[in-house]
Design goal:
Layout (H helix, E strand, L loop, with lengths): L15 E6 L1 H4 L9 H15 L4 E6 L7 H6 L4 H25 L4 E5 L8 E2 L2 H9 L3 E5 L9 H12 L3 E6 L4 E2 L11 E2 L1 E2 L1 H6 L7 H9 L3 E6 L5 H6 L6 E3 L2
Parallel strand pairs: 1-2, 1-6, 2-5, 3-4, 3-5, 6-10, 9-11
Antiparallel strand pairs: 7-8, 10-11
């Protein structure tokens, strides 16, 4: 039986959240494949938040292994490429599951594409029950459909799980007017509305994901997953981030 996280260790307004991270983050400095030290650090960050008494689920991209849209540009049929990308997300989910369970966090991987030998099929009520028991749930294979990004999958799962917030862990500490790594004059936003994100084409998430979050009144918090402990700091209301909400 999973050990439930301790309650009331810190003041936080969040009960259940979904963390979305790109596959590229798991690649670490190399940019491709899996970087064990980076995966272990992210696992420790997730554990820290779970230990605050917050229920946590995740969606991970697969771009460190294969990206369907990029494959389409090289002659791979788009739907076929997207399915390949979905399989990549399951590999990433299993890697993070291994790291989490290595530090004592009971974890379940659920895939939108049934893979009974290696993980559970996605079942909404079962996922909710896992989180209620203190388990971390990682959703793999996106929505299970081609032509949808893992950003959209994250917004969909956050809606289905009744999450209080959707966190997007990126390489920078929020949303900027331009890429701050390329444009030193880029300005950071503290808060944005869903409509502003779409109108300014800021690239926080794709339009379908923003629309889903807006319809279900789920706040999006964009922060840097590169900083150890950053996830917990945002949950405590202290870390630097950009809030997207009405």
């Amino acid at each position: 039986m999973a050990k439930a996280p301790s309650k009331n260790k810190a003041q936080t307004k969040y009960k259940r959240v979904l963390l979305k991270i790109s596959g590229e983050v798991l690649a670490g400095p190399a940019g491709l494949g899996l970087h064990p030290e980076t995966i272990d650090r992210i696992a420790a960050d997730v554990k820290e938040v779970r230990d605050l008494g917050i229920e946590v689920c995740l969606v991970i991209g697969g771009g460190n292994i294969f990206r369907g849209l990029a494959g389409a540009k090289k002659g791979v049929e788009r739907a076929h490429g997207d399915y390949m990308g979905m399989l990549a997300t399951v590999i990433n989910a299993l890697a993070l599951q291994n790291a989490l369970e290595g530090i004592g966090v009971t974890t379940r991987v659920q895939s939108a594409i049934p893979m009974a030998s290696i993980c559970e099929p996605y079942i909404r009520r079962r996922a909710i029950r896992h989180m209620e028991k203190g388990r971390v749930v990682i959703f793999g294979a996106g929505t299970g459909n081609p032509f949808f990004t893992t950003d959209t999958a994250a917004a969909l799962r956050a809606s289905e799980m009744g999450c209080d917030a959707l966190l997007k862990g990126t390489k920078v500490d929020g949303v900027y007017t331009a890429d701050p790594n390329k444009d030193k004059k880029a300005k950071r936003y503290d808060r944005l509305g869903y409509k502003e994100v779409l109108e300014r084409d800021l690239g926080v998430m794709d339009a379908a994901a923003i629309a889903l979050a807006r319809e279900n009144r789920i706040s999006i918090l964009v922060f840097s997953i590169q900083n150890p402990g950053g996830f917990a700091e945002v949950m405590k209301g202290k870390g630097r981030h950009t809030l997207v909400a009405d």
